[in-house]
Amino acid sequence: xxxxxxxxxxxxxxxxxxxxxxxxxxxxxxxxxxxxxxxxxxxxxxxxxxxxxxxxxxxxxxxxxxxxxxxxxxxxxxxxxxxxxxxxxxxxxxxxxxxxxxxxxxxxxxxxxxxxxxxxxxxxxxxxxxxxxxxxxxxxxxxxxxxxxxxxxxxxxxxxxxxxxxxxxxxxxxxxxxxxxxxxxxxxxxxxxxxxxxxxxxxxxxxxxxxxxxxxxxxxxxxxxxxxxxxxxxxxxxxxxxxxxxxxxxxxxxxxxxxxxxxxxxxxxxxxxxxxxxxxxxxxxxxxxxxxxxxxxxxxxxxxxxxxxxxxxxxxxxxxxxxxxxxxxxxxxxxxxxxx
Length: 340
Description:
The protein has 340 residues and is α/β, with parallel strands linked by helices. Helix content is 40%, strand content 15%. The protein is built from 11 helices and 11 strands. The strands form 3 sheets. A 6-stranded parallel β-sheet has the order 8-7-9-10-6-11, with helices on both faces.
């Protein structure tokens, strides 16, 4: 009886490596980050393996992930070549904005460099350059420049207020507006204003603190203090807006879900000549008394489709705080859907 030779089953092909070369060793160090943390971030988010060999990076993984990681690395290197700093948030932005890559051997990073070359969307302030980190943020920033009234609606941590304040500062220092007015409804959420110490300003300042924090990111402290003393920049509760006409101003109403229908209409009709207005809010965090309608939801319904008005929406995928924040928001969304 003859012996039948057994043919071993074919071994699965190991994923091909993409070998990328970066000629400037100093920029290569910045690209990798301290202790290669930038590479680790790309590996974690895209599911690839990156090995550093001198001034080359070898990227291993399945086709689409490998191609996308290659695009991200080239995009970030181009940013460094342009003299721009590289932070963890910039790596995250390049991954989010890169989109799915083609795996047909013709992948190029050219159309992925919009943020870092001639067509990039950026906001220049005195202290820093701010760049959108998701597609929704990029569309939102464009809408802020293009429309006289823009809404930013979505969960916490998506940059709605931060980007609006950054655009306001940019337009102020560029001479496009004469002042910035930032406002919030001073709605009590478990602690009554009357029980807080101090005069009215000291009572409402805690409600305005996120607006102060954003301004401090964009303007030197002394310049900000001078602008506030001269009323070039104002931060005030929504109730203080009644009776005013806001001309040649960049106006932001934050936490607008806590404005009543009457307050929202009052605020919207303050818009004067040469002004821009931004309304931001999260429909899931309404602190109004039970049964009282949110002015944000009403305005969204009434103003949709009105010329000059932009409605911009964010989801948990646009959260740019700690990744756990996005997972928390998604968990609450699932619970709401199950309850509904």
